[in-house]
């Protein structure tokens, strides 16, 4: 092709196409779950335990049933199938049967003609409990004699990563630094509390509209709870006002399915903000004892990390966090000798599950603090210490995976380095009343689930009228997967992206794309779409070649036509191909599939290739601290992210802006107290006024197996922010905070009493 | 297979499955076009000519536009595309441009915020006409000097059928009988007047909900009127309350498309009953001069038939009636020498188009009267004269098509013969105050369009959840095609028919199945469905064989499983196949196609194989005549129909009951006066109290190329009824009526003045 414009015009990759669904949201037309109006729908409300741990001795529901407007009250006994669900471990009852395990555990479900009637009925249910000793610390939970939360014991899971000979390395090291880091429960605080609606059609099939990240999983778990075949449950994702991991669990879906199925009436359930706080999954609080060894040149020799996690009352996605936190303990650095032990326990706290990053934000706080401590001890700059240790092409990770492509951490650090130097100099030169500081945070993040099968499927269909419909199970929860998948399909087919009709996240119309989690939809579902679309394209070229009596190689797809590359007056339209195809029985709908090339981790050593590709990032934070109040203001964040290829740069930047906001909250203010925090009055999230100037830099170190080279950015956007801010605080204060969030109290403590003492420093320089 | 029940359970062919959509209709839940509520939809109304023929000198619309609530007024000048549409000939303007051609011709279209506002605006439009001489008789229209209705002349079309040497045969014949028959315009009188609604979406595409028999044709004609590509118009058929041919034309669709497109606002249009009478197409009134020759044994030697038809102001489907009436002139009889000339003219009458039977009901009135006249003259019984002449295997039709299978007319006559003899005897033995009579009517009907390409397509899809969706463009207008197509798909796939989800008659979701006309959907679309489903079945068996490690021949489809014939514990489910297929990229959606094997008619001789198969029927009618009032009561109809195979016997019987009702109206009461008849007060259709006892007999002479042997019954159900009733009247009165309907006036005239004189009788016995 000689005409460059010609070739460019058929690709929307790298263009800032308007986000799919944005217009509806801006105009208030998007249908969120609570907007779904089913005529005569009953209102559902759950009665929840106020005790953290207790045996249920009796539940008296008759007075509730008799109360005006109450239609039914269900307890654990009414569940037709198996009363246990969960994303990995099936350990959570939909309605408590023998006992309750945390404040918020649902005990009964009321269906009533109005919200008031439901509330009245709730108040008339009498539950007699026998309170049990409770445990709220994972180490205590694992100690002998601890109260038993689940019959199988309080250990959720354990992950070991072993590489090299760490003991020997620690002995030989020039410097060893060991610190203990700690983080708290964190709430997702999505704008839209969980909600849904359901009805049963004449065939008996239950259709559930839900705010969800995970429709195909919801289908399986709801079907199991009801003892029904999966295809008797249909999940349709509504517009979803944020998920961040917590909408991977079924929240309202199980209740909706149960009540609709048993009552054969439409039902609706919307969590109050209080319920969304009390009862949905949180980010895991981790205790991390992190020991690093380096030689005097600042080369990392070894790490030894002990992670203790609290998964709360039920497992949710906890087991994935056990593993991912361990696998990511090294950060984006090559460490020849590694020992990591990650142990998570059940407690009587709120459930901890998936939250943007799956344990990696906590680990990054630790490894990035360690890097700065090393830099300080060795008197090299934080940039330099990182540059000496980063993963490169050919490097080997902690799980002995060799990186062969798309290792962009070096490029990310290079991209922010001038900004770092400039701010550093500005701080030195300018005296202000506030303390100022600048800090770095780097990260690596494995795209997709960890060493398990993790496929996505897609379909594309050439419609009777010559239009294109793309079918994907991928739930767009605001992150933009629908936009990216549309751009991929449109580009392959030579169409404007607004010519693609999209059907997503409806188990009745789409096959599974897997969950919207692990930053996986662009890479995995993008590839599945590419696979489907390539097959359709192949058919279009083949048929057009026959119709035009020419060779396939001379044809291209452009603007809804298949036309001759050198003479665009020779063409056939998609509609013409449809007409031919329908008379010749040529399929118009094509399947795509992609499962990343991974291997499982060895249970004893963690050895394996758990991810097919990794995203990398480096961020810096510039901050000021008001020494009178302890208030930290983040004035600037420079965020460089290696995303392989930005299919839609504005969407990538949108993720980075949102990630920085969430990371800022994680760093400075968000702390959830199980059973106590129930509103946004008690739980502060960043607002616009907290936002720094964010300078997003997109680094594109193409991933050869990615669609157009793309990897992912959803979680990476968040991970380096808190480390960068905490390192900036240490830079400003000269003392370091090891407990997140670095709230006013902890800042003031650091200002007045200096840093917490290092557990151990050995320096032989 | 040894277990007979087992084998039966997987087939629903021949079972009386509940009609698809019946429950919704019974419960009032079916969404008819007028039930479609589009928010803020404008009301459309057309201003229509009150003159039969006039030049439009001016149209003044400003006062209308200024009237309160009026949003726009459109005239012929506003049509963006080509202002001509039509099912075969594109001769009809959507809005009159230069002149009007019949009372009812639309001149302007008003869009207003309410019906009242639209009505007020209509009244303010001023049209200045220059009246032209009009012509209301087709023979006069074709005479030299007649007023010219269309520039191309008043001849719509002509069809000649020539076989053998008729002149010679007439010379040699023992008996020649010639009569003139005449029929009037007939109104379809469907319960639901034409209606629709439309909107334009953000992409500019116009979606039209319409009561239609013909969505894929509507799409093409509306797109042409608007000058848009076809895929910018989407037609969705709503539940349709009867069509009978008149909803093959676009009625509201063009107006809806125009207003929605130009105003970019939702619009709605519902015809009043008056409009449905005045402006939609009618059954063609025919004048038939029919001459038959036979030898003394009652063997038909020749016919010579001259048909003159009146297509009114525009062609609609008229050209198809020109041909079909000629081709069917012989009825179900083998006639060695044939000469038929069919000539149709434009007049300034209402438009005549398709109506259940396409000219054949009129022809059957003639040929069946002729058969009875021959029987009378030769003193053989009406049964006997028919039995001697009927088509058999190996017979040759008037177009020299040799019949090689499924010629069930003999079986039909045999089936009604005992009833005929019994009634005949009963009449002879019983004296009553009323005159009593019994008569026969027989017919042949070619399935599908006449000697033209006439394909149908279908798709079937195995859905992500293991359910099956069948996609067909076929519009079910109450006749039951959705039920039949579902039964075919379900049977092939070993499923209960309620397990098939059906998507029909939506140009955005289905490919064309052709029009719902010519009794073609069971045979043609049934075959297309069979083709699609067979491909899916092939895939299911192949994949299951791999999964079960067995041979395909040992597998069968049953209850949503592919299982081993001799051990049903060895099986895979449809869902399991889906899972395999999506990971292996195996198509889940399959195409089907069928176009009947026909050849075009020779323009000079009519020679050709215009249909792939024919339906046959024989009916008898028992009647009583009140000699004081002339009232004819049809007391019994026995109707034997060769449908090849009744996929759903109750649906077949439903068609027969409905056909008898319509035939009874055609025979006795229905007469439409163009420009005058505007309500059901002026136009009587049979009610429940007019209905005879109908005894439906299904004859199944399997058609080898039909789906499970099926042919069709939609129009055949109606055709023999009027002939049987008219022959019964002749039997009762001893004198014969040659003009339909045989209303009170004509009956009284026949009673008092005897039969109209034969034009010519030559009898040499």
Oligomer: homodimer
Shape of chain A: globular
| CATH domain class of the domain at 8-30 and 455-594 in chain A | Alpha Beta
**Strand count, sense and closure of the main sheet of chain A?**
7 strands, mixed
Q: What is the CATH superfamily of the domain at 8-30 and 455-594 in chain A? A: Aldehyde oxidase/xanthine dehydrogenase, molybdopterin binding domain
CATH architecture of the domain at 8-30 and 455-594 in chain A, by name, is: 2-Layer Sandwich
**Strand line-up in the sheet with most strands of chain A:** 3-5-1-12-9-10-11
Q: What would the CATH topology of the domain at 8-30 and 455-594 in chain A be?
A: Aldehyde Oxidoreductase, domain 4
> Helicity range of the residues of chain A?
25-40%
Q: Strand share of the residues of chain A? A: 15-25%
Number of helices of chain A: 19
- Count of DSSP E strands of chain A? 27
Assign the structural class of chain A, choosing from mainly alpha, mainly beta, alpha/beta, alpha+beta, or little secondary structure. Answer: alpha+beta
Average residue pLDDT of chain A: 95
Instruction: Name the poorly predicted regions of chain A.
Output: 1-9, 755-761
